[in-house]
Amino acid sequence: MAERARKPKGLTLRRPERADRVLEGSLFAYGTLADPRFVARLLERPIGAEPAELLDFLRVEPVGFAYPVVLEAAGERTAGVLYRHLTEEDFRRLDGYEGVGEELYFRERVRVVRSGARTPEPAWVYLPTAKTVARFAR
Question: CA distances (Å), 130 to each of 47, 56, 88, 92, 134, in order?
Answer without folding.
Answer: 31, 19, 26, 22, 6
